[in-house]
Amino acid sequence: MPERSYKTNRSILLGQDNNALVYLVAINLMVFALLSFIKIIYYLSEIPIELFYSQMQDWFILPASIENYLSKPWVLFTYLFTHASIWGLISSLLWLWSFGYILQDLTGNNKLIPIYLYGGIAGGIGYLLLMNIFPVWANHIQTVQPLIGAGAAVMAVAVATTTLAPNYRIFPLMNGGIPLWVLLIVYGLIDFATLGSANAGVAVSHLIAGGVGYLFIQQLRRGNDWAAWMNQFFHWLNDLFSPTKKEKAAPVKKKNTPQDTQEKIDALLDKINQEGYQFLTNEEKAFLKKASKEDLL
Questions:
Q1: CA-to-CA dists, residue 209 to 51, 117, 122, 232, 259, angstroms
Q2: How many CA atoms lie within 13 A of 278 on its CB side?
Q3: pTM of the full predicted structure?
């Protein structure tokens, strides 16, 4: 991964188009708000709260039993966005933002969601297999706690980001900054410490998800983009529901006026935000480096 030789005042803003990080945060918040609202209705209606868990929450979380899972296969996806407590939600979103922001800064907007989904789904499959293969859990599978929360998916994002740029510096004013790999170690220690009361399957699901994040970046370096088909599918869905929207990138033309120069800079910054710095041509990188020296960025 080449070192970035310029600075940009364009940050990943909440209102920015195609911001995958904001989408993930919003979905997690909406699912939590929906289930919390329904839980309040149960409470105010004096319905036993146990019925909320069996009638509502169980349709979003991943059970340990394969038999129970097969009756609601979509939970392999929905459990990634479901949290049982506000503190679990806040913790997941803070770590997701910390690593996801850097990942998008380095690769653009089209890698974060695929890594999140790949890691979470792989972790969920690993959890199911582990719980049903080993007798220590399989013999009393109906009492084993389900898998819930974005922990596995966030671990995949954290490992992928660190694999991509382990020496990326955060808090640069603190003696030159802290390497990203240090943040990953801190996150890993906190994550597995909080899983101390859970069964080993939950911890293994996080390890598997982290491995998927590592493999994703390794394959990307070899030219195999595991996110390509998923992004094509998302674009197809977008075109399906917005047939009049034309997603054509503005061509970068060589202009000499200040206005045209700024337009070219904006187009290149948009390209970085969507695809990542490594997809710029040498000519485009040189142009941005020159613009940076001239304080045009």
A1: 32, 10, 6, 23, 46
A2: 14
A3: 0.77
Q: Where are the beta strands (DSSP E) in the chain?
A: 169-170, 178-179
DSSP bridge partners of 169: 179
d(CA 276, CA 6): 14
DSSP conformation class of 249: P
Q: What is the DSSP letter of 96?
A: H
Q: Which two tokens stand for residue 40?
A: 């309040």
What SS3 class is residue 130? helix
Query: What residue type is 187 in one-letter code?
Result: Y
Q: How far apart are CA 286 and CA 282, in angstroms?
A: 6
Question: 178 — phi, psi (to 5°)?
Answer: -105, 125
- Amino acid identity of residue 186, one-letter, is V
Long-range contacts of 2-6 (CB under 8 A, 24+ apart): 2/277, 2/278, 4/277, 5/285, 5/288, 5/289, 5/292, 6/288, 6/289, 6/291, 6/292, 6/297
In one-letter notation, the amino acid at residue 49 is: I
CATH hierarchy code of domain 20-235: 1.20.1540.10
Alpha-carbon distance values, 43 to 37, 40, 46, 84 (Å): 10, 5, 5, 16
| Cα–Cα distance measured from residue 91 to residue 71, given in angstroms and rounded to the nearest whole number | 30
Fill in the amino acid letter for 85: S
Domain layout of the chain by residue ranges: 20-235, 249-293
- Chain position carrying tokens 């933002």: 97
pLDDT value, residue 68: 93
Q: What is the pLDDT of residues 78-126, one digit of tens each?
A: 999 999 999 999 999 999 999 999 999 898 889 999 999 999 999 999 9
Burial track 57-91 (b if 16+ CB lie within 10 A, e otherwise) = beebbbbbbeeebeeeeebbeebbbbbeeeebbeb
Q: Where are the alpha helices (DSSP H) in 108-227?
A: 112-133, 135-138, 151-164, 180-194, 200-221
